[in-house]
Amino acid sequence: MAGNSFGEVFRVTTFGESHGEAIGVVIDGCPAGLDFDLDFIQQQMDRRRPGQSALTTDRNEADQIEVLSGVFDGKTTGTPLAMLLRNADQRSADYEAMKSVYRPSHADFTYDARYGFRDYRGGGRSSARETAARVAAGAVAQLLLRQAGVQIQAFVSAVGPIQLNKPYTELDLTGIDDSLVRCPDAATATQMEALITQLKAEGDSVGGVITAVASKVPAGLGDPVFDKLEADLAKAMLSINAVKGFEIGSGFAAAAGRGSQFNDAFEQREGRVRTQSNHSGGIQGGISNGEDIYFRVAFKPVATISKNQQTVTNRGEATELQAKGRHDPCVVPRAVPIVAAMTALVLADHWLRLRLAKL
Amino acid sequence: MAGNSFGEVFRVTTFGESHGEAIGVVIDGCPAGLDFDLDFIQQQMDRRRPGQSALTTDRNEADQIEVLSGVFDGKTTGTPLAMLLRNADQRSADYEAMKSVYRPSHADFTYDARYGFRDYRGGGRSSARETAARVAAGAVAQLLLRQAGVQIQAFVSAVGPIQLNKPYTELDLTGIDDSLVRCPDAATATQMEALITQLKAEGDSVGGVITAVASKVPAGLGDPVFDKLEADLAKAMLSINAVKGFEIGSGFAAAAGRGSQFNDAFEQREGRVRTQSNHSGGIQGGISNGEDIYFRVAFKPVATISKNQQTVTNRGEATELQAKGRHDPCVVPRAVPIVAAMTALVLADHWLRLRLAKL
Amino acid sequence: MAGNSFGEVFRVTTFGESHGEAIGVVIDGCPAGLDFDLDFIQQQMDRRRPGQSALTTDRNEADQIEVLSGVFDGKTTGTPLAMLLRNADQRSADYEAMKSVYRPSHADFTYDARYGFRDYRGGGRSSARETAARVAAGAVAQLLLRQAGVQIQAFVSAVGPIQLNKPYTELDLTGIDDSLVRCPDAATATQMEALITQLKAEGDSVGGVITAVASKVPAGLGDPVFDKLEADLAKAMLSINAVKGFEIGSGFAAAAGRGSQFNDAFEQREGRVRTQSNHSGGIQGGISNGEDIYFRVAFKPVATISKNQQTVTNRGEATELQAKGRHDPCVVPRAVPIVAAMTALVLADHWLRLRLAKL
Amino acid sequence: MAGNSFGEVFRVTTFGESHGEAIGVVIDGCPAGLDFDLDFIQQQMDRRRPGQSALTTDRNEADQIEVLSGVFDGKTTGTPLAMLLRNADQRSADYEAMKSVYRPSHADFTYDARYGFRDYRGGGRSSARETAARVAAGAVAQLLLRQAGVQIQAFVSAVGPIQLNKPYTELDLTGIDDSLVRCPDAATATQMEALITQLKAEGDSVGGVITAVASKVPAGLGDPVFDKLEADLAKAMLSINAVKGFEIGSGFAAAAGRGSQFNDAFEQREGRVRTQSNHSGGIQGGISNGEDIYFRVAFKPVATISKNQQTVTNRGEATELQAKGRHDPCVVPRAVPIVAAMTALVLADHWLRLRLAKL
User: Fold this and answer.
1) Nearest by Cα to A10 from A170, A236, A172
2) Hey, is the C-beta of B13 within 8 angstroms of any chain A C-beta?
3) Taking CB atoms and an 8 Å limit, are B356 and D352 in contact across chains?
4) Are strands D151-159 and D283-284 parallel, antiparallel or unpaired?
């Protein structure tokens, strides 16, 4: 109801502010008996953590997971699985100046409008730090999806105007982490990194696009009306800070085309019903059809920049702001594990929900 | 849990198959005391109903609303509001042939994969006929939003390659229904209608884009983490049949740009905090900021075409399909009230949820 | 949220007022492939319907079920199952006088307090007529539970001071419907019927107790903390009009005793772990243990009586009320199928939820 | 869905096992702006904590609350409020013997039946230790209810056969904590304490009854069908470990009586509509009427006793058990704050939900 939970069966609730004691997550509904691979979870945390490379913010958080409950003898128990991350490298002083000044395109004004006041330290609950808890939960979801054979990969396909235009099927997705920017095409990655480095120097920021692919998803996942699989994926993606767009399969391009071009003919192949093309992006009528699910997620440029900006105070007085907090010049390299995590949360939830569909 | 309900407080559950007895909707959570304007609701039904013009399917449904409960003395009572639409112009015979043949890019195969069998008559539950129930519920939501002063408008901004490129602020949105295609620019509308007419003659179909604008939305709507306002809007839109993409505010274009270009500077204007530009699309940190909320929704071409298509049967045998059911060559003109309805469901729900945010 | 739905997976939403067009129910989450036995459902309706015998109200409703959706070729489809009951024998004129007078121990005053006004005809939504929709839904739940082997029986174990004190294990529960009062002990039934007949003549009413037994429930049903199986049963029972108490297993008697008396020793029997006694009532730690689940439900006397009563109007003026509406002198004979239905809703929901507990 | 959350708007999720790292709770949906009185919360914890007196278990936990999120500048922020309790005085060795032996009338067998295995240390998640998290959350709910003027009091009204038979209106409820047993009648308290002391010496246990009273509850709380206020209270109470019965207002006694005796006549008094008697227990038609809400809760004797008991192992072999874990001879003195906490959770949730009932 208050929007801090996600999923129906595999249900995740996050808590915590950027500069509070800790952030964390409770997963309720993870089935008993799952091998709990803490190393895998920590790896995903490390892919998201700040301070991991020259391309990211200077805030430095080890983001070491502490498991509080729900695991016994190396397996999940079916009871709530709680994980905690202490906040360490807080510099609240950086933010004191912003107590009464609304940062443009941040959530300062809207939080005040909604709640009457806010924890202004580092953006409080609106900080992308909250997504660390999602990555932890999403990693558990990925462990669960291993049981279904599902593989999820996400990578950077655009940074500002630099786009990776090859279809994902022509890329080597095992090499995503070979570049700091997490683009699996080396030449494009180099360009992207150069642009980010340049913008960091200029005190500006830049947007980007992440492409995600979920393969070996069983047919039958997704509820057919409001909880269509693509609808839940869209919500999951738009719930990530700074995301402004989502398209699945042929996406916006399909809007410009004809049915005779964009329908996916069926055929029998490899012992099961397959489609010859995959304009649908692996989902038809809201339900997975066994083909790859792929989609693109658009991120706006980070709102925090080191340039003077016009704004107002919480008393409505005009003022000028120069941001002093640490920030990423481009969010997409660190957002890759977040997109993967949110994808996993949707698929794990629907994989469990499939158990309920028929007698 | 089974995905036929939408909304947390203003909660809508639809039921019914395309060729069953009836379709309908139950709204639970509409506050007591709202003036129930049945005429307005019926008008929205009429905008969606099949057979309304030469551009749409020949199926003819009067779609006359029957109110079963929840209204007394012209006002909502706070108890469940149930509305029923009898199915009238069913021609199940048209669909008998499709009992065992999977129509490409329809939900036939995926429903079988999920449920083991399906009501194959006219697509059953996967038919866009289900959206009639959403329009009825959405009209009630619009009545509720009138109390908040909110106005919702949706219009066709692209049909296939024909695009309306003017910003919505330069259009006269009172003229949306002046053209059959529901595009508020007369010259573009004429082109769109010509293309749809041509494709109908060719037995093909075409995609399109709908733009929606919600104005006078109070600041403070939206829960800040998973139930961000734009996340719920994205889910609402992707839950509509044939939708493949969503972008809000500057959307995918923002991914290509810089923070210094896309931030919305604050200023004091008209006695309240306003932004100078509106790249954010009226939402910041998941919460409305009082500016116009605007977004674009991409629809793929209708999957039903009158051309031969390769497919398989439910026993995996190759076969060729020529669709015989009635269908729209382009879904977007009739989808305009559906987009408006789903927008209203999201905003009405969050408008009520705002009552819970602070002491 | 607004309290008209019940169950998490097998989710039931009822709608309709006593004297409106119709009442009905939507079940969302019934798995596909269940044989839909409409005759069984109608039988349960007949057991609850008014006018069935001299012991009940004179209101006469055929309560013929109309199935609107969710069933195809005699099986559930996994999509929402909607059932409708038209109201027929309404006499709103009976109630016109009560428009502004609060009937003692009815919901008239509290509905006004909550909603500002109410549909006063026949109690509107607060009428026990709403439970007809529950019986229809509960009958579907019972069809589902047949797949699990579960049997549910409910019977009248007290009417006013007349109590059936034999343990249920000594009764022939196949004979519940042999008496109009639905007490399986013939001698006690005769006494109960005589008392009800006498009170009807006196214009008074009387309370009673219903005992329910669910046997062959698999071990493992129930979530261990808030959604304990007995907790959900308690809620289900207290949600029935006029219910004031609930006790499971040894109930209030256990509060007076010692652990050494009330613990249920385990033994291996019939190839599985069994308890020697069943003070627990078939549930331990919130989870079924495979023994009979049994509990007692206390109903207060019907509030509608044909005696003068002191009360106030909705303007706070003192007045005297003589009820004129038709009513039951004792609610428990007709409440037997309601208790069974609510029991079935809880067990069906948790039977499905068990599918989610482990890998 | 997995049953570790409670409430719709004021939504509480608990986590943690008896002998794991920690237990805790996340409250999602507490409105922003509430004064956060940590001292009051800690006081409630102290009333529940083990080792507080000679009448309770010897396990000694300080149960010091750590607030992780959701509070800033002494006020709730509207974001998730997480509280943590580290487990300190664990003696897992005590329980090693019970790894494979099912303790009678505990949840060992049923957890294995549901999940396939369990954290057996000290009962794991089925331990009453989980209720510490509820008391913390319930204390926050009580802070919220102060805003509504609501007062909640709970006290011990029976220990085994020793009953306090005076109506609560004749008791001085400010003196509940004057006795270790939390019975506000000094003479009865002395008897109760003597009995508990005797049973502790004998290695046996005893049941009891707690009576709760919520006064100054505004009229209008409760949803009228499934989420009747008494239904949610019943669920809340039956979700507490060892509870076997619940009755509200005149309860089971009403089942034996007549309408002419048990109806509550209305009158105008103190400027508002009041009832002359209160058989209803403050709730009519599922909605509060402004009178005192009072109910009784039956607790069975604690299952852990220091006597030899017959049982089986998890391989079905007969064995004899002598419990060695620390335990309370009678649970009700420590359960008083738990009953109060669960009452507060229900009322706080419905107090917020009332905001949604009308325009």
Assistant:
1) A236
2) no
3) yes
4) unpaired
Q: Is C305 on the interface with D (CB under 8 A)?
A: yes
- D66-69: strand order across its sheet: D5-6, D11-15, D22-28, D81-86, D66-69
- Amino acid, single-letter form, for residue B10: F
- Nearest CB to C114: which of D220, D250, D312? D220
Chain C partners of B29 at a C-beta cutoff of 8 Å? 1-2
What is the Cα D201 distance to its own chain's centre? 26
**What's the pLDDT at D60?**
77
Q: Which sequence spans correspond to the domains of chain C? A: 5-357
Nearest C-alpha of chain C: how many angstroms from D282?
A: 10
Count residue pairs from A and B with Cβ separation < 8 A.
Answer: 407
Contacts of D68 in chain A (CB under 8 A): 15-16, 20-22, 24, 84
Which amino acid would we find at residue C163? Q
Cβ separation C31–A352 shorter than 8 A: no
Q: Are D123 and D106 in contact (CB under 8 A)?
A: yes
Cα angle value A169/A174/A175 (rounded, 5°): 100
Q: Three-state secondary structure along A146-211?
A: HCCCCEEEEEEEEECCEECCCCHHHCCHHHHHHCCCCCCCHHHHHHHHHHHHHHHHHCCCECEEEE
What does the alpha-carbon distance between residue C62 and residue C146 come to, in Å, rounded to a whole number?
Answer: 27
In Å, what is the CA distance from A66 to each residue of A23, A82, D22? 11, 8, 11
Measured CA to CA in angstroms, residue B40 lies from A34, B37, B48, C74 at distances of 53, 6, 13, 38
Q: Name D77's Cβ contacts closer than 8 Å, sequence gap at least 6.
A: A17, A115, A117, A118, A119, A124, A125, D32, D70, D71
Interface membership of D29 toward C (CB under 8 Å): no
Partnered with residue A82 across adjacent β-strands are: A26, A69
Helical (H) or strand (E) element with A288: strand A287-288
Q: Give the chain B residue whose CA is nearest to the CA of D34.
A: B359
**Residue B268's closest chain A neighbor by CA?**
A316
Any idea how long chain A is?
359
Q: Report yes or no: C74 and C35 within 8 Å, Cβ to Cβ.
A: yes
Query: Is this complex's ipTM strictly greater than 0.95?
Result: yes
Q: Is the pTM of this model over 0.80?
A: yes
pLDDT value at residue A324:
66
- pLDDT digits 0-9 by tens, C245-276: 999 999 999 999 999 999 999 999 999 999 99
Question: In the structure encoding, which two tokens stand for residue A180, read together?
Answer: 């700091």
The topology (CATH level 3) of D5-357 is Chorismate synthase, AroC fold (3.60.150)
Question: Partners for C (CB, 8 Å, 3+ pairs)?
Answer: A, B, D
Contact (CB, 8 A) for C156 and C332: yes
pLDDT, average across residues D136-146: 98
pLDDT tens digits, B155-208: 999 999 999 989 999 999 999 999 999 999 999 999 999 999 999 999 999 999
- The reply to whether residue A231 touches residue B238, judged by beta carbons under 8 angstroms, is yes
